[in-house]
């Protein structure tokens, strides 16, 4: 992490400057709420204004130094996502969650694959890409289509204090889908990489399954540790700050395991910190007597963490980049919306949900953020040997599509609620 690897007085200055901006963003976000926009959208807009794309108060170098705040926030956000899965509360919605989760993963993937494939075949802009690579890109893009941002949905739900079957079902589907998308992308990626290099290796899939099982196991360990930590009598706000740091430690742990495995085994072992923190949240909510205290931690800490996270998301956005490929970004965004709508309707039909849920069930899944961007980064790094800068063009379009989702997704979900 850049902040810790190259720690200096400048790093402290960047951090202080950013926190001052966050205080302003916190208050400005309230004004956006008054005019009918979700607080999340307001925070992203403030981030864009202070970032390199506008006033450049926070430049690209500063953002690189502050990247650790993404991990700090994502650990908390995964805790919050896990806390939404209180099994006794969603027991009545289990059938709906089951069918909508399966549909949101597999139908979104299938429809996305077909639509992206047809786009690559029939639009002249992509004529230079070989048929084989078009097939690979369609598979990888479709798996990225499945990724979504529970952080944005949670922030909108907290913003509106929304409750009810639609809310709990949506969060259940979002959280369980996060399990699925990580596995789906890993399997698709490993298969394509092996075939593309001429050596399909089945043991890669075994390693992926091993990583997921161990991530779940470490999540339970984290849950037990946090449960015991909550028994300590210290000031509430200090205790909550330390729990956020515990979530952050899962990212440091995963990074250490990844580096150590490369050094010792010459093979990356990747434990998923989001999965670890999400499982920890699920464990505390369902298997301990600390549910109410943990929910208070989520509610009290959330309003500060979301300001830090979404303002930095906005500052990181490259708006000129969106304008360069806007027509294709908009096309991919619309293709994803179609796949989400079809998957929500199919899932709702199989679950025998109300008609309104079938029609609106796609809205919580529009926004994409950290997971999607991380998958694109892997995609870009691992296939950069493809000819004619194909990978950079597709990555640019996918990233720009995600930027559109960050502006439109929270607003559409708020409308649905």
Shape: globular
Q: Count of DSSP helices? A: 19
Strand fraction: under 5%
| Major beta sheet summary | none
Radius of gyration, whole Å: 21 Å
Q: Provide the residue-averaged pLDDT.
A: 82
The CA-CA distance between the termini, in Å, is: 38 Å
The strand count comes to: 0
Order of helices and strands: HHHHHHHHHHHHHHHHHHH
Helix content: over 70%
Secondary-structure content class = mainly alpha
List low-confidence stretches: none
Which key phrases capture this entry?
417 residues; mainly alpha; 0% strand
What does this structure look like?
- This protein is mainly alpha-helical and 417 residues long.
- The protein has helices spanning 2-5, 9-34, 39-50, 60-65, 68-83, 87-90, 94-122, 131-146, 150-160, 165-196, 203-229, 236-265, 273-287, 291-316, 319-324, 326-350, 355-360, 370-382, 390-416.
- Helix 5 (68-83) packs parallel to helix 13, helix 11 crosses helix 13 and helix 12 (236-265) crosses helix 13 (273-287).
- It is globular.
- The mean pLDDT is 82.
Outline the fold blueprint:
Elements: H1 2-5, H2 9-34, H3 39-50, H4 60-65, H5 68-83, H6 87-90, H7 94-122, H8 131-146, H9 150-160, H10 165-196, H11 203-229, H12 236-265, H13 273-287, H14 291-316, H15 319-324, H16 326-350, H17 355-360, H18 370-382, H19 390-416
């Amino acid at each position: 992490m850049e902040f810790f690897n190259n720690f200096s007085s400048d790093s402290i200055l960047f951090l202080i400057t950013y926190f001052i901006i966050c205080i302003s963003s916190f208050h400005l976000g309230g004004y956006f709420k008054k005019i009918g926009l979700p607080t999340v959208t307001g925070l992203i807009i403030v981030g864009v204004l202070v970032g390199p794309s506008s006033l450049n108060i926070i430049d690209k170098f500063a953002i690189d130094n502050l990247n650790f705040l993404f991990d700090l926030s994502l650990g908390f956000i995964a805790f919050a996502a896990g806390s939404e899965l209180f099994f006794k509360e969603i027991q009545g919605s289990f059938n709906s969650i089951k069918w909508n989760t399966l549909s949101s993963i597999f139908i979104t993937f299938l429809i996305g694959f077909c639509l992206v494939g047809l786009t690559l075949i029939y639009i002249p802009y992509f004529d230079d890409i070989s048929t084989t690579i078009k097939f690979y890109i369609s598979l990888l893009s479709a798996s990225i289509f499945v990724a979504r941002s529970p952080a944005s949905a949670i922030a909108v739900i907290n913003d509106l204090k929304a409750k009810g079957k639609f809310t709990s079902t949506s969060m259940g589907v979002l959280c369980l889908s996060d399990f699925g998308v990580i596995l789906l992308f890993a399997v698709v990626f490993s298969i394509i990489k092996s075939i593309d290099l001429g050596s399909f290796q089945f043991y890669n899939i075994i390693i992926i399954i091993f990583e997921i099982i161990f991530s779940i196991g470490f999540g339970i360990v984290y849950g037990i540790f946090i449960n015991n930590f909550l028994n300590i009598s210290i000031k509430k706000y200090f205790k909550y700050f330390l729990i956020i740091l515990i979530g952050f430690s899962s990212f440091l742990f995963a990074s250490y395991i990844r580096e150590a495995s490369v050094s010792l085994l010459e093979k990356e072992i990747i434990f998923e910190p989001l999965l670890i923190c999400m499982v920890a949240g699920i464990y505390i909510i369902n298997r301990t007597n600390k549910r109410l205290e943990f929910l208070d931690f989520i509610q009290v800490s959330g309003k500060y963490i979301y300001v830090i996270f979404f303002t930095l998301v906005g500052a990181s956005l490259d708006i000129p980049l969106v304008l360069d490929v806007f027509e294709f970004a908009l096309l991919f965004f619309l293709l994803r919306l179609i796949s989400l709508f079809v998957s929500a309707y199919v899932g709702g039909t199989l679950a025998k949900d109300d008609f309104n849920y079938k029609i609106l069930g796609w809205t919580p899944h529009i926004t994409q953020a950290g997971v999607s961007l991380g998958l694109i980064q892997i995609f870009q790094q691992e296939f950069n040997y493809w000819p004619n800068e194909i990978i950079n063009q597709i990555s640019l379009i996918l990233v720009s599509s995600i930027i559109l989702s960050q502006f439109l997704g929270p607003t559409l979900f708020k409308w649905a609620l």
